[in-house]
Amino acid sequence: MKKQKFAKSKQLLIFLFTAISVCFISCMDSSLAEPKSLIVILKADDLGETYDNWNEFIKIVNDSGACAGIGIISKNVKTQTSLNEIRRVSALRQSNFFPVIEFWNHGWDHEDIANGTEFKGTDFKYQFEHLKKAQDFFKDSLHIICHSFGAPHNRTSPITLKVLEKFKEIHVWQLFRKIENETNKPWIDPDISAFKPSNNRLMLNIDYLYLYDFKIDRIIPNYKNDLKKPYIIIQLHPMNWDTQSFENFKEMIHFYKEKRRGVFMTPYQYYKYLKKDYISE
Ligand SMILES: [Zn+2]
Q1: What's the predicted TM-score (pTM) here?
Q2: What 3 state SS string does 48-72 have?
Q3: Which of 80, 189, 220, 271 has the fewest Cβ atoms nearer than 10 Å?
Q4: Domains in the chain, start-ordered, CATH in brackets?
Q5: What spacing in Å lies between the alpha carbon of 212 and ligand 1's midpoint?
Q6: Which pLDDT tens digit goes with each residue over 24-55?
Q7: Cross-strand partners of 71
Q8: SS3 of residue 260 by DSSP
Q9: How remote is the CA of residue 107 from the centroid of ligand 1, in Å?
Q10: Cα 34 off chain centre by
């Protein structure tokens, strides 16, 4: 009788231990909790319709176990096929449950206006309406809450800072500091000062900008230098890529993955990591 009871409690203990272990392993990703290598954020711009180049880019990222952020120009997503494809891709998950692809707000129409761009040289009302239309498109048509932003042409003004204040769900602002000087509080860039878990606005500076084809001749030789930084962002335009650019892109992912030289994160994932919140929503 005693023996039976002991066997049952032993079974129960083994079951509990297994359940806890499985949950711990699947809920946490050790590379996310404590990455010892360089944090690499891929920023791919200008998605509208999901043309072949986009499908190939997403496939490479997914197949290689990396992740990336893709900036959507909401007005340019015109067909049901593209809507369905973006929704499908947004459900792909990394082993740590964060999305493989984080779609983010790259403006409503990306159109240039007289003496300016969508978020530079335009007034508060214009910028607010454009940002809101895009955020609403994410929510209503893509069924995604969009947490990150990056302006068309990397051009913004102090007005953009005021507009973004109205969108509490946007926690990450990706910018190119050589052109954009919006460094005011409450936005904090870990390149400049420490981001505390209580902060809610993360500003990220672009380190490498590729407008057309993609090459690795600057990135790889600069790796040791980059290791001194808390993160790097690589801006890409996959719609302009030829076969060689795609090959270079694969080689870059391989370079960071090999010997764990880099850990890929999406912009919002990096924000959650800095807040020590490792569980994806
Ligand atoms: Zn763009």
Answers
A1: 0.88
A2: CCCCHHHHHHHHHHHHCCCCEEEEE
A3: 80
A4: 34-274 (3.20.20.370)
A5: 12
A6: 333 344 445 456 789 999 999 999 999 999 99
A7: 104
A8: helix
A9: 8
A10: 18
